[in-house]
Amino acid sequence: MSGTYIKVQTDDFNIGQLSEQVRADDATSGAIVTFTGIVREMEVVDDHLKALYLEHYPGMTEKALLSIADQARERWELGNIVIVHRVGELALNENIVFVGVGSAHRDNAFLASRFIMDYLKRDAPFWKKEITGEGEQWVEQKKTDLDAAEDW
Q: Which burial class, exposed, middle or buried, applies to 41 when counting CB atoms under 10 A from its CB (0-12, 13-18, 19+)?
């Protein structure tokens, strides 16, 4: 039986354990696709990023993520889905988000994982602040993220 696991947390996650959770108790999935988002170094105006700070709306965020997973299930036949997103202050190279999708066929798993990430970036109530040596600044949603979700 396929299931959906959603978690928003401050603690880091273990990619291997979450990948196993996508596989758990599901012998129907012949394909597992995972995505891990990581805090990357980038130039922010004239300074370098030191960390990100992510906030969310507890309860509402989990419901939004579950809705996104449900929408993916409506489009494709899927096995287990695991979505874990971190909040709080995250340093460079730390994990931010994990999305894992199982399916009988690889195309469905690849498409569903991309769909989930595109919709997560647009619809999940997370707010991001960039922390640099010069200070802190809340970040607006990127047009490219909004456009990616519109492609579906």
A: exposed
Residue-wise burial string across 71-98, b where 16 or more C-beta atoms lie within 10 A, e elsewhere? ebbeebebbbbbbbbbbeebeeeebbbb
> What are the angstrom distances between the C-alpha of 30 and each of 49, 73, 101, 109?
39, 16, 11, 9
pTM of the model: 0.93
Taking Cα atoms as reference points, which of 118, 110, 105 lies closest to residue 33? 110
* pLDDT (tens digit per residue) in 100-118: 999 999 999 999 999 999 9
